[in-house]
Amino acid sequence: MPDFDTFWMFFDCSRTTGWPTLILAALLVLFTGCSDDDDAVESAASLAATTVNCSTTTNTLSTQGPSGATFVATISLADAEESWCSFPSNTSVTTGIVGQPLELDIEENSSDQYRAAEISVTFSTGYSTLLKMWQMPATSNPGFQRAWGEQPAYRQGADYIYKTYHTSLRSTNKYLVGGSRRNFSICFDAANRVALWVAYPLHGCYTTPKSGRTDAWSYDPNDQLPEIPQSQQAYIVDTYGTGDTRGHQCPSADRYNTDATNAMTFYATNIMPQNYSFNSGSWVTLEGLVRSWAPLTVTKMRYDTLFVVTGVHLSGKTIRDKKGNEVGYPSKCWKVLLKQKRDQNENRQIWEFGADELQAIGFIFTNDRAGGEMKLSEAACTVEEVEQLTGFTFFENLDPAVAAEVKSREPDTAQWPGLAIN
User: Which of 240, 275, 250, 289 minimizes the C-alpha distance to 372?
Assistant: First the structure.
C-alpha cells in the first residue's frame, strides 16, 4: 500500500519545494509502495500428507502468502474427547508466520478405526481455508500407504525391497503448494537388479515449473531408507553396454518441479533395460499420452490426480551390464492407470469413490521391435489382465467390490482422449 504519511510530509514542504518536484516525489512514493511483488503472492496452506499411516507421529503444515503475513491454525478432532493430534506444547490452537513450516504432533493409532482431524487456517490477509487429515487404522504393515491410489498390494518375496522416495516440491500457485511429497514407490527385485513395479501420482505439482531433464544417471545414494546396496543395483551410469536403452519406469518428464526431484528418476532403481525400437516407439508415445490425461492444467488440477503403476514382466532372460552384473531383462513392459472420470474433479479421497465414478486402464507391450510398432489401442487392456500377467494386485485401497468392477472394465476410449488414434 502507498505510504500516505510520507506523501503528506512532502505536501507540507511545498512552500520550499517546487510543484514539479513535489509531484514527482509523491508519484515515486506511490509506485514504490505498490511495487512489492509479495503482495501478489496468493495465500495458501497445505499438509505434507492428507492421509498418514497408523505409526506416523508427525506431519507438517506449509503456508505461502505475502511477506510478513501471519496466520492462526486450529485443530478440530471428530471426537472432541480425543487428543491424538496437536501442535507443539500439546495445544490445539497456535499462530505462525507465513512461509515458516509448522509441525503437527500425532499419536500412533492402535485402533481398528480411521481417525479424522480438521485444521482451519486463517491468514492476517483475510484468507481462510480448511484442511482435512486422516490417520489409517492399525495394521501389521504400516509402511503400506493405503491412501495412495497408485499403491499395489505388497507381495512377499525373499529378494523384494519396498521403498518410497520422498522429495520437496516448490510452490507455484494455490493449487500447487510445495512441501514434502512422495516422489515414487518401488518394488525392487534385488536378485534381478530391477524394479518389478514403480508406482507414482501424476499431477501438475510434479511437472511445474519445468526445471528440465538432469540426466543424473546414478545408483540410489541410499540417503533415504531402506537401503538398497549398490552391489544389488545395475550399473546404468554409462549405458548397459548391450545396445539396450535405459528406460525410465517413472518418466523424467513427469518430474520437472525441481532438479532434485527429477534426479531421482535417474536412479538405477527406477531404470529397466528396454529394446531401443520399443523405447523410442510406442512406449514414448504412451508416456506423452499419459501426461495429457493427467491433471496438469489449472482447470483440472484442483482435486484430481492420475495414479500410475509401471512395471516389468520377467521370463528368465538376463543381460550383463558394463560391470558384469546380471540384470533381469523384461519380456514385457506394462502400465496401469486410475483416476476420476473425465472432468469430474471431486474433492474426495480415492477410496470414497464408487465404481461408476472411476476409470482405469492397463497396457501390455512386448519389449522388442514389434512392441515398438504396436498401436496403443492394441496394447490397451483391462487392469485385471495385467494382474493375471504379473501376479500383483492393484488398487488395494479401494473397496474390494469397487476395485473388482473397475479392474474388469474394458477400456473406454471416450474417457482416454487420443487412445483410439494411436
Answer: 275
Burial class of residue 75 in the structure, from the number of CB atoms within 10 Å of its CB (0-12 exposed, 13-18 middle, 19+ buried): buried
Structural domain contains residue 347: yes
Instruction: Yes or no: say if 235 and 218 are a contact pair by the CB < 8 Å rule.
Output: no
Is the same domain home to 91 and 196? Answer: no
Domain range for 118: 40-135
310 with 250: CB under 8 angstroms?
A: yes
* Cell output for 173: 500457485
pLDDT top residue among 282 and 210:
282
Q: Stretch 194-221: mean pLDDT, rounded?
A: 93
CA 21 from chain centre, in angstroms, equals 55
CA distance 172 to 361: 30
153 or 248, higher pLDDT: 248
Taking only the tens place, the pLDDT of each residue in 84-141 is 999 988 999 999 999 999 999 999 888 878 788 999 999 999 999 999 888 877 764 5
DSSP output for 138-161: P-S-TTS-TT-TT-PPP---TTEE
Each residue's pLDDT tens digit, 367-414? 999 999 999 999 999 999 999 999 999 998 888 899 999 999 999 988
d(CA 55, CA 106): 9
Pairing of strands 179-189, 160-169: antiparallel
Q: Tell which of 100, 135, 170 closes a domain.
A: 135
Q: Which candidate, 198, 141, 234, places its Cα nearest to that of 335?
A: 198
The answer as to whether 27 is a domain residue is yes
CATH number at residue 364: 3.40.570.10
Looking at the fold, whether 207 and 242 belong to one and the same domain comes out as: yes
92 and 222 share a domain?
Answer: no
**ω into residue 226 within 30 of 0, thus cis?**
yes
Q: Are residues 265 and 318 in the same domain?
A: yes
User: What's the rounded Cα separation, in Å, for the pair 314 and 333?
Assistant: 9
C-alpha cell at 178: 510445495
Closest CA to 263 of 205, 154, 323, 183: 183
* 166 within some domain: yes
* Total domains in the fold of the chain: 3
Query: What is the distance between the alpha carbons of residues 189 and 160, in angstroms, rounded to a whole number?
Result: 5
- Residue 131 pairs in a beta bridge with 119
Contact between residue 321 and residue 310 where contact means Cβ atoms under 8 Å apart = no
